Amino acid sequence: MIQIKQLSKKYKGTEKFSVSGLDLNIDEQEIFGLLGPNGAGKTTLISMLSSLIKPTSGSFTINGLTYRENKKELKQFIGIVPQEYALYPSLTAFENLAYFGSTYNLKGKYLKQKILDHLEILGLQNFANKKISTFSGGMKRRINLIASILHEPKVLFLDEPTVGVDVQSKNVIINHLKKLNNAGTTMIYTSHHLNEAEDFCSRVAIIDNGKIICKGKPAILVSEQPDARNLEDVFLAITGKALRDYA
């Protein structure tokens, strides 16, 4: 589904590459986890694959589509759940979703019904006409997710989709994502919740300094690392325990 060849990104005015010569293949209907410390290059990689920023060098295809030749088709094919809330706080939940749905050429009764169906599935049907500014963090996360899947994307990019939410909201979000994956959606997921990633992902790659350090099925990575009990132990053994603050 996704083929990445020698993909690199160096931001203007910086000395280091955020992503450096990265090669990766992701299969159809995988839930692939991109894990790494702060500043490792996860969000930059997702931003390139989502056609939000241009690579410095290298290439990638998604279902055979390239951002240079098929940018319009590519944007219809993918969905993006960003790390930050991408919602208009002064609009209601329904108004936000109607707007985002219209950007994918969804309209009329079809769009309205899809919005209502998703609001019900994610437990927000009673808040359709409430302004986003009144919502809790978990509710905003769920609306963020709905906005990205109304057009039924075949590939879904999830950048920290459960960060800062309560346990109940996280459970609803993860369960819904699993249902979408079972229905055929390929997912690329980043998170600092390593226990969540270990359970949720079919394969993971640990990224540091813009490069893939290791990749594979979580259980196999744990078994290969001496004394590791879980994915968090693997992560610390590979990336170290030093703080990764950056500005």
Query: Can you tell me the overall shape?
Result: globular
Kindly, what is the distance between the CA atoms of the first and last residues, rounded to a whole number of angstroms?
34 Å
The CATH fourth-level homologous superfamily: P-loop containing nucleotide triphosphate hydrolases
Q: Which fold name corresponds to the CATH topology?
A: Rossmann fold
Please give the largest β-sheet: 6 strands, mixed
**SSE-based structural type:** alpha/beta
Radius of gyration: 18 Å
**Gross CATH architecture:** 3-Layer(aba) Sandwich
Overview of this protein structure:
With 247 residues, this protein is an alpha/beta fold. It has one domain: Rossmann fold (3-Layer(aba) Sandwich). The chain is 37% helix and 21% strand. The protein is built from nine helices and nine strands. The radius of gyration is 18 Å and the shape is globular.
